[in-house]
Design brief:
By secondary structure, the protein is α/β, with parallel strands linked by helices. 45% of the residues lie in helices and 15% in strands.
Length: 220
């Protein structure tokens, strides 16, 4: 093992307390602030902006400046350069779809709270080598869902590892995940579909966020 937990305690505690992180794709940086406010209006105070468009980092800067109460991380981090870019833009944490050792090393060296993507025991063990104890389980449902995760996670339970499932998570299965102690939070791309963001359909996003908040709060 390479030292202590890479995810800062306060950031992890806040994400776990939030239970849900909205996973988002921005086409324009101008969408970022009203989107963050729409989610907050529905009770969702954690989000992950994906680095799939050029607008993500500028959107992050605007959210950190104008909506500081939002816990804002960045996903789809695929190379070490992006680790520093996320830190420079004020990101609270980083997420990747897989377990790239170069990215994990860069995140650890830079001090960025980081959750790599895992789907096999080998992925988990590689993440553990870099001090990761909060891991993204991706793609969750296509890989076998909660039943598969329970089997895969069993050898590492004594290490305090928790998971953030993403991929196929919806309102109808979210609470079953959240009720399991393996789960730190869930990632939800359904909360703010790209088309709703493009159309500035903020009321629809707030409504979905409110529904998700209510259901998450009922999970054990």
């Amino acid at each position: 093992m390479q030292g202590s937990e890479i995810f800062a305690d306060a950031t992890r505690e806040r994400l776990v307390r939030s239970k849900i992180a909205a996973v988002l794709v921005l086409d324009e940086a101008e969408q970022a602030v009203p989107l963050a406010r729409a989610l907050l209006g529905g009770g969702i105070d954690a989000m992950e902006l994906t680095l799939r468009t050029d607008a993500a980092l500028e959107g992050l800067r605007r959210i950190k400046r104008e909506v500081p109460e939002m816990l804002c991380g960045v996903g789809t981090i695929l190379n070490p350069l992006q680790v520093q870019q996320v830190l420079d833009a004020g990101g609270d944490f980083g997420v990747s779809p897989g377990t790239n050792p170069r990215v994990l090393h860069a995140a650890r060296q830079a001090g960025l709270s980081f959750a790599p993507g895992v789907v096999t025991p080998s992925d988990v063990e590689q993440a553990l080598e870099y001090g990761c104890r909060l891991l993204k389980f991706f793609p969750a449902e296509p890989s076998g869902g909660l039943a598969y995760l329970r089997s895969m996670a069993a050898p590492y339970a004594h290490l305090g590892v928790q998971y953030i499932p993403l991929g196929g998570i919806q309102l109808d299965n979210m609470t079953s995940y959240l009720a399991d102690p393996l789960i730190g939070a869930v990632g939800g791309s359904w909360l703010a579909p790209r088309d709703d963001i493009r159309r500035a359909n903020w009321d629809a996003i707030t409504l979905r966020a409110r529904q998700a908040r209510k259901m998450a709060d009922t999970a054990a």
